[in-house]
TrEMBL record:
Residues 60-295 form the Periplasmic binding protein domain. Belongs to the bacterial solute-binding protein 2 family. Coiled coil: none annotated. One of its GO terms (cellular component) is outer membrane-bounded periplasmic space. It comes from Corynebacterium canis. The keyword Signal applies. This is Sugar ABC transporter substrate-binding protein. It is found in: Cell envelope. The keyword DNA-binding does not apply.
Length: 334
């Protein structure tokens, strides 16, 4: 794993962050799901009283990235005798309402993503003020402390983008197109900004509708046809990168493709060479640690990271190391 090697990880260490080993959404309707009999959280291996934790994300049904986050959260809940209530909505106001619903139902802890901290943060602050432990994950690393959250699990998107930009420079990229699939998501903007910094060249941003992959394919294809000098496409989520493969073929472009985040299909694309590499932030670990940290708080008042973010990435997955994580990715464990 090119970036899993210690030398790669050393480049992203910040003094205020805890390093472990190592945002996205495609839209959809809101959902709320609860583990029931023999469901999530049943049969825990601990002796603590059963508690209820809400995980509120900006993901959507069918988004494989959030399936991985949720799988990690479910495993942590099952281990710790927790009833996990998962809900999500890609629209920030609706997501804030889901946080309020969790508060109203008197949950014992809340894990929340904040792609738009100004819209979601005040709701999280209400939970904190109500005495409910709250942690952040995935999106909102630069904002979570403002709203009283006690921890955060994810990657610094600016740092991850800069590392990706440096990798692109090493690979000889000259004209990079950064595809943002969710306009208004600060995490995605930070990734593209970091790429430009690391690359040391201007990076063009293309906005697409990530909720409609057919539209994504057409939009990217049109851009490539208009500008044949584009030699590298940087996706910010696996489905957009995989769709861009079709765009490249249809436009007769020679552009290479890389992306943030992985899934089982993307692993195969790296193996076949249609995708060059991916920046992995370990979504399973984000969900697992967020829920586990809330159980630790309930258990004995423990916290992870001392109030500082706990990094789960970035690392690089490429042809040299993809076999190491392929089985886990396809099993929804990474």
């Amino acid at each position: 794993m090119r970036a899993v090697k210690p030398a790669r990880f050393a480049a992203i260490v910040l003094g205020t962050a805890v390093i472990l080993a190592g945002c996205s959404s495609t839209g959809g309707a809101p959902r709320t799901e609860t583990g029931g009999a023999n469901g999530v959280g049943e049969g825990g291996g601990v002796d603590t009283q059963r508690k209820v934790v809400a995980l509120v994300s900006h993901g959507a049904p069918g988004d494989t990235f959030w399936d991985l986050v949720r799988k990690g959260a479910e495993d942590a809940a099952r281990k710790s005798n927790i009833e996990l209530r998962y809900s999500s909505d890609p629209q920030a106001p609706n997501q804030a309402n889901l946080v309020q619903s969790a508060i109203d139902s008197n949950v014992d802890g809340i894990a929340v993503t904040m792609p738009n901290a100004q819209a979601i943060g005040p709701a999280a602050q209400k939970a904190v003020d109500a005495g409910i432990p709250v942690v952040g994950l995935n999106a909102g690393m630069t904002e979570y402390q403002k709203y009283g959250l006690q921890g955060f699990f994810g990657q610094d998107e600016s740092v991850a983008g800069e590392m990706a930009g440096k990798r692109l420079a090493e690979d000889g990229a000259a004209n990079v197109l950064c595809v943002i699939h969710e306009q208004g998501n600060s995490s995605q903007e930070a990734r593209c900004g970091g790429i430009e910094k690391g690359l040391g060249k201007k990076v063009e941003i293309l906005y697409v509708n990530g909720q409609d992959l057919t539209s994504v394919q057409a939009t990217v294809q049109t851009k490539l046809a208009q500008d044949p000098s584009i030699d590298w496409i940087m996706g910010l989520v696996a489905p957009v990168a995989l769709t861009s493969v079709q765009s490249v073929e249809a436009a007769g472009s020679k552009a290479k493709i890389s992306t943030f985040d992985t899934n089982g299909e993307l692993v195969d694309a790296i193996k076949s060479g249609t995708i060059e590499w991916a920046v992995d932030q370990q979504p399973y670990l984000q969900g697992y640690l967020a829920v586990d940290s809330l159980w630790l708080d309930v258990r004995n008042g423990s916290t992870l990271g001392g109030g500082n973010p706990v990094y789960t990435g970035p690392s690089f997955v490429d042809a040299d190391n993809v076999e190491q994580i392929a089985d886990a990715a396809k099993a929804g464990l990474r």
